[in-house]
Specification:
Elements lengths: L1 E5 L6 H10 L4 E5 L2 H7 L6 E4 L6 H10 L3 E4 L8 H11 L4 E5 L6 H10 L1 H5 L3 E5 L3 E6 L3 E4 L7 E6 L3 E8 L5 E7 L9 E2 L4 E5 L5 E6 L2
Parallel strand pairs: 1-2, 1-5, 2-3, 3-4, 5-6
Antiparallel strand pairs: 6-7, 7-14, 8-13, 9-12, 9-14, 10-11, 10-13
Length: about 220
């Protein structure tokens, strides 16, 4: 089951429309201010959730009065963010893939928190990623291969989420590595690499990587 979470950060409306049109999402979640985006784009969500402290009251009232959508209300004083609650909901209903849009806007604290939120689906082997017009961000905890013609954009960056990622070997890249230990204090060492072969390999032994595929 593929689930789309539309959160309350900055969203390129045309990109969202195209993304939704190209994908076949069984479930769509409008989160907090993300319900305004659903309304503007005429996207019918499966469910709405949040504390709605950032959403326009008239938009919330529209959904409350004029639709039969399920709405989950959260108190603003809570340990988890609205997006994190939405991820938990998506996991609980059996999602096998979760895409999150509106999670990479101007609030850097929210972006970093949203990246950390990807740990929960990762532990359950659920593909989960943040996406916008220019970036696709996900966590990986095992070796993978990427086909050049399927990558998102031109550049690929690898950062250590855990204290270190050991035995890191990358093949098929402009800047290869062999049996390297990447730490979360490496700064820009793993930033802005490029795939040059038809198939690229990211191989490592332990740890969790943040993988960011980007286009200018």
């Amino acid at each position: 089951m593929k689930t789309l979470i539309i959160s309350g950060g900055q969203i390129d409306i045309e990109f969202l429309k195209q993304f939704v049109a190209e994908k076949d999402f069984e479930k769509i979640v409008g989160v907090d201010k993300g319900i305004e985006t659903c309304y503007k784009c005429n996207i019918t969500p499966t469910i709405l959730m949040g504390d709605f402290d950032s959403a326009k009251n008239e938009i919330l009232k529209h959904y409350e009065v004029d639709t039969n959508l399920e709405i989950l209300y959260f108190t603003p004083e809570k340990d988890d963010t609205d997006t994190q609650m939405a991820i938990k909901w998506a996991i609980d209903i059996g999602s096998t893939q979760i895409a999150i849009i509106g999670a990479t806007g101007s609030r850097i604290d929210h972006l970093l928190g949203n990246i950390q939120c990807l740990c929960n689906p990762l532990k359950k082997n659920i593909e989960c990623y943040l996406i916008d017009r220019n970036n696709k961000i996900m966590l990986i905890n095992h070796s993978i291969t990427i086909q050049k013609d399927e990558q998102y954009g031109t550049f690929l960056s690898l950062l250590a989420l855990t204290n270190e990622v050991t035995g890191l070997t990358i093949n098929g890249f402009k800047y290869p590595l062999s049996n390297y230990t990447l730490t979360n204090q490496a700064g820009g060492f793993g930033v802005s690499n490029e795939i040059v072969d038809e198939i690229a390999e990211i191989i490592f032994q332990t740890g969790i990587l943040i993988m960011i595929q980007s286009r200018d």
